[in-house]
Target: Epimerase
Amino acid sequence: MKVIITGTTGMVGKGVLLECLDHSDITEVLSISRKPIEIEHSKLKELIHQDFSEFASVADQLKGYDACYACMGVSAAGLKEEQYTKLTHTFTLSLAKELLILNKDMTFNYVSGEGTDSSEKGRGMWARVKGKTENDLLNLGFAQAFMFRPGAIIPLRGVEPSSKLYKFLIRYLKWLIKLIKMIAPKAVVDTTQIGLAMINVTKNGYDKRVLKPYDIQILAG
Model:
């Protein structure tokens, strides 16, 4: 399989990238980001692209892929709804629409988050925007589309969070996340599980389109 990954400079995206590079069923990985990720691998190609509101200008480099793992995300902290919508919904849908034109049989996996509001009517701004993004992706017409909603995430394989807050939590409160995993094992996933789940759901499908942490654990095997 040939896959595209966004958000490879972030915690989830990098974790997914490492699993894809190691997996025998993945023959090529295209990382789309604004800056180099400083990883060299025979399977890896990089597309440095600054304007995520359009992808028509690089369409020739997006053809022939079997899946897209959209892991790019930003914190809503300090952002107005219009700004967060652009960075979350507009950028994701811009890529998705271009990819659908070029690769009609593609699987599109999107990393959302636990607590996303599918009704798009709740009080939480970020949850509404994520909900609209999920809904629009599911209705776009991909052969397969899956919305990943991980809860607490444990980074593995040397991957570090890009968020300062999450980096602090992982560094000083990792014991708490491990405790939560012991108490509620179905609520916590790690970056390796997310990567493997994305690969396996692309290959084999799944009976749900919105995936909670336990679904991700099942798909990771």
User: Anything to note?
Assistant: The chain has a mean pLDDT of 93. DSSP finds six helices and nine strands in the chain. The chain has one domain: 2-220.
